[in-house]
Structures are given as C-alpha cells and as structure tokens.
Amino acid sequence: MKVVxxxxxxxxxxxxxxxxxxxxxxxxxxxxxxVTLVESIPAGREDIEAVHTRSHIENVTRRGLxxxxxxxxxxxxxxxxxxxxxxxxxxxxxxxxxxxADSSWGFCYFNNMAIAITALKxxxxxxxxxxxxxxxxxxxxxxxxxGDCGYVAICNPGSGNREDYLAEVTQKLPDKGIDLFxxxxxxxxxxxxxxxxxxxxxxxxxxxxxxxASRKNNAGCFALLEGGxxxxxxxxxxFALLEGMEQG
Length: 248
Ligand SMILES: [Zn+2]
Hints:
- By secondary structure, the chain is an alpha/beta fold.
- The protein has a single domain, classed as 3-Layer(aba) Sandwich (Arginase, Chain A).
- Helix content is 42%, strand content 13%.
- The chain contains nine helices and seven strands.
- It has helices spanning 23-31, 45-49, 54-62, 66-83, 112-122, 140-146, 162-172, 200-216, 231-247; strands at residues 2-5, 36-39, 88-90, 129-133, 152-155, 180-185, 220-225.
- The protein is globular and about 45 Å long.
- Residues 135-137, 186, 188, 227 line the site of zinc ion (ZN).
C-alpha cells in the first residue's frame, strides 16, 4: 500500500498529545518495511481557502503552524487521489477532524479530510464521497465543513460496545452511489487508549468493511490519521486497518 508521509511530521510542533515526540515514529517503525512511502507535499493555498476562512488561515499562520498544517492537508489530498485507483493511507499530523471553516480545537488546525474531498470535487475527480470517522471523538469540524454540502455523507459511529459498534459501521456503509470512501482514522477508541473499546483486530475488520463497500460502489478508498495516543499499540492498530483495506 502507498503511504503518504514526510519526516517533518516528526516535529513536536505544539505541546498537545497529537504532537508528542515518538508518536509518528511508533507508526512509521511498524509500517516502513511493509508499504511504499510517498513524500507529502504541502496543500496549495487555493485548496485550503476552499475550506477555511482567511481569518482562520491567518490565525493558524500567526501561531506558526501554517507549514506543518498545510503539509498534513497536502498529504491528505495525495492519499485521496491515490485512493481512487488503490487503497492508501496518509501518515500525517496535525489531525484535522475538529477543524471547522472558521475555527479549530482538539489538536486540529486545518481539516485534512475536508480539504482532500473538496479538492477532488473541485477537480471533478469525484461526485459523491462517504466519510467514516472512527476516532473516539465526534468529528465536528468535518460535519461543519461538509455536512451541508450535499455531496458527502458522514458517519461517526458511537455505539457503546464493540459488537454494536462494528454492526453500526456495517449497516451505515452504503452499497451504491459513492465515488470515494475516506476513513478519518483515529485510534483512540482502542482498548488500550482513551476510549477503551475496540481491539486491534477490529481495525482490520473496519478496513475490510470499507474496502468491500468501496468495491461494491466501484469507488476508491483512503484513510488518514486523526487521533490515537498510546504509542505502544498505535503502530499495530494502523497496520491492522491497512491490512484490512488490502484484504476487503
Ligand atoms: Zn480523538
């Protein structure tokens, strides 16, 4: 599988847990011998401005975070484009699903998923997309940007036990009408992370379910990194999701 990555994502750009030292390395170490790495390039200004207000972009710039946030967003765009022909993953940070058009919180600055899908829509590479957000936290920013656009359906599963959670994902994935499936892949729902729910194998199952749905739709699929904070299990969880996406 092609994995979009850049060594600059190892930078500790803030003091929040998404920017923690060793977090990207923990994933990179597990993936590096099993994937084809593609170097991330920054998102173009027009792709960011298609999603975020100028005042929000200026705010991110004032905080010294424009370059790293644009590099993450650009990696998401690349992964989405690769995803049209083969499953792909963006190993990027900062995460994005709490970034709305005019504000952001929760360790996010630019909405990587929204920027990727909007860019492909603007370039007429897709008509309709489906976003599955498996992070522990509700992806409010993605709903803010894409919820009313009319061409993206968004699912934030939230059932209380793992069997119900997987059943909810299975049931919500559409059989037709979608050109691209994007997984906002947070791993903080893992049993050894903040959410204490899903097993490593559940990420393999989710990857498989999404790939199977994408085949039914004759659609592409890609995933990008959101949360996930236990460095001891994070690499294995990402790898499980990617394996599932290749098997489905
Ligand atoms: Zn989260």
